[in-house]
Amino acid sequence: MDAALCDDLLQEVFRRLPPAAAPAVSLVSRRWLTLLRAATSSLTLRLPDGSAPAAAAALAALLSRYPFLSALAVVSAAAAAAAAPARGAADAVLLAVAGAPAAARLSALRLLPDSPVSPAALLTACSAMSGLTSLHLTAVRPMSFRWLASLPRLKSFALVNAAASVDSAGSSSDDADGDGEGEDAGALPLERLSLCGIRSGDRGLRWLWLRCGSLKWLQLRACDGTGDGPASSAFATCLAGLLSLELRACRPVADRVLLLAADHCRTLTSLLVYDGGSREALHRFIHQRGAGLRTLDLRLPLDLHNDHLLAIGAEQIPHGQASTHGLAALRLQSCVLITGDGLRSLARSATGAGIEELALVSCDVVEREPGLLSFLSQSMQRLRRLDLSYNETLSDKVIGAMLSSCRNLTDIRLRGCRGLTGGSLVSLLRHCGQSLEILDISRCPGIAVGNVELFAQHATRLNHIIIEESVTSEELKLIAQRKGIKIGSLPCEGSF
Hints:
Blueprint: H1 7-16, H2 22-26, H3 30-39, E1 42-47, H4 52-63, E2 71-76, H5 78-82, H6 89-98, E3 108-112, H7 119-126, E4 134-137, E5 156-159, E6 192-196, H8 205-209, E7 217-221, E8 244-248, H9 251-264, E9 270-274, H10 279-289, E10 295-299, H11 306-314, E11 329-333, H12 340-348, H13 350-353, E12 357-361, H14 365-368, H15 372-379, E13 385-387, H16 396-403, E14 411-413, H17 422-432, E15 438-440, H18 449-458, E16 464-466, H19 474-483, E17 486-487
Parallel strand pairs: 1-2, 2-3, 3-4, 4-5, 5-6, 6-7, 7-8, 8-9, 9-10, 10-11, 11-12, 12-13, 13-14, 14-15, 15-16, 16-17
Helix pairs in contact: 1-3, 4-6, 6-7, 9-10, 10-11, 11-12, 12-15, 15-16, 16-17, 17-18, 18-19
């Protein structure tokens, strides 16, 4: 029977199998194991404990058996990460990947060892992996980005910079990256860039910013600067064509970035700011660029005030543009200083009326003012996606009153709303049972599995329920299988 199946047919079958079936397939025969490896296009590997040369040799031997990889992730073992990393360990791993048979085929690489890679090793490896379109690295020391010019197809780059705690001599590049604006001035093809742990004094960022004129998406995480000292003006050169900007836990530099974005981001449609940003800088940004935003995502417990909501509502849609060009998604988390008056003022405006997605996550204003949600749902007639997660005292009565005037929801998230019971699902089925597609009721202990079964049975368009595996009954699994409903968490969004 085995001989009757040709290699091409078997490989096609293997490609269609779920990843969990791979161990069983590999045990059938040597031929099946070889064909399975040849059919594998994506692989995640954890580096073994031991010396760097031994780990690199083991990796090289393993990768020699996977000639058709297009996506590879290599991460450090937890035990190895706890020990002091050997100098050059990450370089050896990188060069092992570059020497693999599939190196020229790789389009996505996530290299997450427990030590930084060197620019010299990257420059050597890039010539063998010139087809990369996505690259994720733990750290580069000394800080240098000139090797990026050797990756002509790279569209997405992420640097965690986990080695930021090294001594100051090791954290600065000595190759004059900050100079030479006329040298190698060609623009990089990067469209997505994520940087974590960048410090104000890190050298080498100037070279990068001056060549990132094609950026569409920029994320800064846990950064206290944009490199090359506070006086450097190179960062602003990458902002002109930006569509999306994310600032996560960047309080020391958030104001500067917001003010520069207000002056230079003429095409920005999405802004995310978590845990950092002054009242004045955010207000100025909204005043100058708020009219162009489609998505605004804020987690600013002590920095977001009602006047920001009033400024958002005051933004006018440019003359001649349809209302679909205004704010479509507003996401607020842990914003304790906003009140019901601020949200009502926004909802009454033309901007508020066009909102299709609203998130009020762990916002105690929802619990302080029981009639607020009903008012918002009545005013925001285009609302389709609603997230009320982690409002623990939210009641069935409040949910029912809100849903009576919000009948077109396709996605509702109630994660961590511990005060809800099955009554909320009854109201949801009555008012949105014909439209709802995604339901998140994880960490809601008051909702019995019988209520979930009833909802899944009668909701006509439901395709995803987010709920813990431990409270999923066999009956619910049968209903989900019969109706094609997925149970479990949604896939992670974003590339990084």
